[in-house]
Amino acid sequence: MKRRVVRLTDTKNNEARLVPLTQAATEVFKQALNNPVRPLDCDLVFFGEPGRDGKRGPYAYTKLWNQAKKKAGLDDFRFHDLRHEAVSRLVEAGLSDQEVAAISGHKSMQMLRRYTHLRAEDLVEKLDKIIIN
């Protein structure tokens, strides 16, 4: 937590990596790790109720996610869409492709580009800053 990074070991491509955390994300992790009802035998940060076998699995967010989507009127919206949005906003914020790939875990620039959807309105602002002679 002092370094504000999290080590992901169970990843899509089976390669562990360190991911930097924002200050807000670091606070969420601290609160979760200091949860007074956190079982001592559970190594999960966000844990759910014990299953039939008595072991705790990851927190199941599906019910709350679906409620939030319904309330917002976003029927055709998947949790994974947030990854596309985050990658696009990081690029627009000025992070390099390599920096964004280090955060998102994309192994190739081709896949990173597939996830990046820049807003034309933001490109207009950048174009206005270019001095063309």
TrEMBL record:
User: SUPFAM superfamilies under this entry?
Assistant: DNA breaking-rejoining enzymes
Q: Which UniProt keywords apply?
A: DNA integration, DNA recombination
Question: In what residue span(s) does the Tyr recombinase domain sit?
Answer: 1-120
Annotated membrane-spanning segments are none
Q: What is this protein called?
A: Site-specific integrase
